Amino acid sequence: MENNKKQEVSILEKKRSWFELALAAVFYGVFIYLLGILIYVLYLGASFVLFIKLLTSVVSVGGFCLGYGLLFSATKDIIINVTDSIIITRYVVGPFSYDVNSKVTEFEYVSFFVDKWGEYATNLWYVKNRHYKMCSFETKQMAYQFCLDLSNKLDIDILDATEKGNFKWIEKDNFKIN
């Protein structure tokens, strides 16, 4: 009997907390309010100089508010379709989502390292020197556990690249984190 079920690995970002969503709502509200004022002034037929001044303030303050609204409300989910070799990155804001598909030929290994912000980041490597940045973690233990789970599901190796110039391949059975 042939198994037609597709094997997928999902990495879902946790839902935003209530205060992050409240902040996002405030930023979105300010953006919509500024946009409404701009449309109202345009409807009234105000002078060109007033319209340009208002437009510059709406673009600067509104852009700030829109950016922070997205920052506080957006989530990023990663779905790895093993059978079709596709990495799907899904950006979600409320009921709206946008998918970015990346075609991969073969998964090689997963690594974790210290990034420039001092966090432990993880990469999924494929096709010799190409990689996909997965997630960042606060502790080495959390990054290792994520890499271990992912490597077990994809049946690939783990590389510890936390020390510059001293990369170590990890044996999954007997590795202990400091």
Automatic annotation (TrEMBL):
Biological source species: Flavobacterium geliluteum
Keyword terms: Membrane, Transmembrane, Transmembrane helix
Highest taxon listed in the record's lineage: Bacteria
Segments traversing the membrane: 21-43, 49-71
Protein name: Uncharacterized protein
